[in-house]
Amino acid sequence: MRLGATVLAAVVAALVLGGCGDVGSVTPAPSGSLAPLVSPVTGVLTHIEAEALSKVTAFTLRTADGRETRFVIGILENGAQFPPGHLAEHMANASPVKVWFRDDGAGNLVAYRLEDG
Fold first, then answer.
1. Which residues, 6 or more positions from 95, have their beta carbon under 8 angstroms from its beta carbon?
2. Any idea where the domains of the chain sit in the sequence?
3. In 10 A of CB 116, how many CB atoms?
4. How far apart are CA 37 and CA 64, in angstroms?
C-alpha cells in the first residue's frame, strides 16, 4: 500500500513539473548527423504534458542514440489497451515506450499507437 502511494506521488509530481517547461523545446542528440526518425520508435520518456492525470496531450521521448523528440497525442488506435495516462507510470519507472507516429505536415509528430517498449 505504501509503495502505491509513493508511485502515485511520483507520477503526480512528474506531471505537475512536466507541465512547467518550455513546450516547444527539444534537446538535439549529442552526436552529429542522425538519420531521420522512422515510425515506430522506442525510448524513455523525459517529459509529459498534461491537462489532468488522465488527459495527456504530448510527451518527449529519448531514443537510445540520445535524440529527444516531442510527440503530440492523436487518436490512438489502441487507446483502450494503452491509455495516455499510462505514460506517467512509464516515466516514473523509466520503462521504454514504443511509439507509432505520423507527421501532420505542420511540424508536429502525432502519435497514433503506443505500446510497452
1. 44, 89, 116, 117
2. 2-116
3. 12
4. 12
Each residue's pLDDT tens digit, 20-54: 433 343 444 444 456 788 999 999 999 999 998 77
Nearest CA to 71 out of 83, 82, 59 is that of: 59
Give this prediction's pTM.
0.71
Q: What is the CA radius of gyration of the chain?
A: 14
Contacts of 73 (CB under 8 A, 6+ apart): 56, 57, 58, 59, 84, 110, 111
The domain at 2-116 falls in which architecture?
Beta Barrel (2.40)
Matching residue, cell 495516455:
84
